Amino acid sequence: MKQVARVLSTYSADLFGICSVLYELGGLVVMHDASGCNSTYNTHDEPRWYDIESMIYISGLIENDVILGNDEKLISDVIEAAQETNPKFIAISAALIPLFMSTDMKGIARIIEKRTGIPTFGFTTNAMDTYVLGGNMVYREFLDRFCPALDGSQAISDSSSISVNLLGVTPLDFSIIGNVEALKEYFKDCGIEVNCCMTMGCTLSEMTEAYKADVNVVCSSLALDGARILNDKYGTPAVLGLPMGKAACYELEKLIRESAVDGKSRLLGSADEITCIPPLEHAKSSFTLRDRAKGGTWIIGEAINAAGIRYVLEHDLGITEVHILCPTQVDAHMLREGDVMVRDEADIEKVLKGAKCVIADPIYRRILTRDENGNLPHFINIPHEAYSGRMYRSHIPTFIGTGFTDWLTSKVNADQDSIGINDIMKINKPYRKNN
To answer: Which residues form the Nitrogenase/oxidoreductase component domain (predicted)?
Structure first.
């Protein structure tokens, strides 16, 4: 019962991370599950659903097919859909029921590709892991297959200007409130060309030209394996971090220019150079409850974003004792002594007990406990689309750029930051009145 979530939410699942990364790339994406999974994805985790066309479907798994192991039904349905839609690729992922039945997703993918001639990928997901693991599956498989090995035939720019690939850009971490545009504007102001923004405003053909970039900027831990693949193939260094706040905007540009010159990978907020990017399994942290820091300020969220917030607090605001609670399963080398990686509600409650300040999605406010004087920690709302979906989208700040320093300063110095009504309640309020 320890893993039961009484009052908290869960992060977007691994198969939704796959859908989010692949959404704009022109492929047929199928979630193998009973009806309902697709509506959950497009309602809560995919803000592009009503504005950008895509081919994301649910297999409509039924009880008889599960009991009898009728994989041919899935295979024939996917082939029929592919014949009608002519996708650039096919991707199938599994929810919990196929996992229990030991469905061979990769084997099914090989059969579909053999019959259709269309590149097909099978992802062994489980709908229980977070979107970060699902996103890394896509980056690992797609960049390995679609990015060609350099053989001298590729046209590589001889321009003296620096170009970058932005890895890990999806609405799950950046939403659609202007952060992606601000990210591109930041690099334009720095005089750095964006070769490819994976995968918002990006095509599959642009992804195949990833070799043209001098540096890969990892904007979310869901793309860590993508940086490793591109480093192995082309020797392209990676810089892990986001331009959040005044100090980070200056420092990130400096790190990118250094990496473009010496070919070494770097982390924002660390003096260490990364000689090689290890596989994802080595990036899963062992930061446990036993070694956690106590008190101070706690930031909850995806590792690279949380590290960006910490950088602002420490370097722009001069705040000390800032720690990260990462519930998304991959630390992206951003965690340090005193930080923790936990997912269970009971463990999160233990970590936050005694905290002076908590910066997190508004849902986490529910789990805060009062101190001996009856006071709650100071809470700063930074909604996360991958956690609360569309509920608080209008409250997500533009966290890219120098202006984030002033925004966060105002929140730190203000009284308790509360959201009285969420976006869904605003929409439904007229209907409640009519009733």
So the answer is: 29-332
**Do 316 and 247 meet the contact criterion of CB atoms below 8 Å apart?**
yes
Can you name the CATH fold of 297-413? Rossmann fold (3.40.50)
* Cβ-contact 409, 385 below 8 angstroms: no
Measure the CA–CA gap between 360 and 267, rounded to whole angstroms. Answer: 23
Of residues 32, 53, 52, 36, the one with CA closest to residue 44: 36
223 dihedral zone (left: phi>0; alpha: psi -120 to 50; beta): alpha
Cis peptide before 199 (omega within 30 of 0): yes
Are 105 and 94 in contact by the 8 Å Cβ rule? The answer is: yes
pLDDT tens figures, 182-237 = 999 999 999 999 999 998 999 999 999 999 999 999 999 999 999 999 999 999 99
CA angle 144, 149, 155 (to 5 degrees): 125
Three-state DSSP class for residue 152: coil
Instruction: Answer whether 362's CB lies under 8 Å from 383's CB.
Output: yes
Q: CA neighbours within 13 Å on the CB side: how many for 77?
A: 16
**Cβ neighbours for 306, distance < 8 A, ≥ 6 positions apart:** 299, 300, 324, 325, 326, 334
Mean pLDDT of 274-289: 67
Structure tokens at 376: 């709650």
Output the six-digit token pair for 393: 């989208």
Q: Which of 194, 141, 208, 199 is nearest to 174 (CA)?
A: 199
Helix/strand/coil for 267 = strand
Q: What would the CATH number be for the domain defined by 14-129?
A: 3.40.50.1980
Quick one: residue 152, left, alpha or beta (phi over 0 = left, psi -120 to 50 = alpha)? left
Q: For residues 299-312, give the mean pLDDT.
A: 97
Q: For residue 251, what is the enclosing H or E element?
A: helix 246-262
The pLDDT tens digits for 36-71 are 667 778 888 899 988 998 899 999 888 888 888 889
* Structure confidence at residue 242 (pLDDT): 98
Each residue's pLDDT tens digit, 242-259: 999 999 999 999 999 999
Q: Looking at domain 163-267, what is its CATH homologous superfamily?
A: Nitrogenase molybdenum iron protein domain (3.40.50.1980)
